[in-house]
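Consortium newsletter contribution from the modelling node. Members have asked for a concrete example of what our holo predictions look like. Here is one, prepared for the protoporphyrin IX containing FE complex that several groups have been discussing at recent meetings.
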Amino acid sequence: MKIEQKSPNRDELKMLFHQIGSEERLRLILRDFYSRMASDILVGFFFINKNPETVADKQVGFLMRAMGQSPTYRGKSPAKAHEDLPPILAGHFDRRLKILEATLREHGIPEEAIQLWVRFEGSFRAGIVG
Ligand code: HEM
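And here is the predicted structure:
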């Protein structure tokens, strides 16, 4: 069993945004990430009949709020967002973190920032893995 990861604090998340540089770069990274998720052999089926770009753009809004760059986020919470999907299992969640890590590395995000981002996403495990 995985131990629940503690989320980075607000200041750490703000610093992460500054290492990313801009909302445009964040969008570029997330569009790449969701395109990889959607074509992945283990988690791709979650995206059948979904537009990965739309999901990426929702995630941009979510992260802009979490990284202290936007006062509001209008979308669903991560725990609510997946209610109509097939059950997300621990292995799916782990796979997502691996794909995220690989994507961020290819986009030249510094290693420390990658680990922070992965820790942030990991902190949602209990609410998402059912
Ligand atoms: C294996 C893990 C995950 C899978 C397979 C997955 C898959 C998906 C899919 C398919 C959607 C689109 C749902 C729809 O349009 O009906 C979605 C939405 C979303 N996901 Fe995930 N997700 C995962 C983990 C996460 C995590 C860790 C977070 C947050 C850190 C997250 C945040 C969101 C958000 C914010 C949305 C959009 C909410 C909205 O519609 O307003 N997801 N996810």
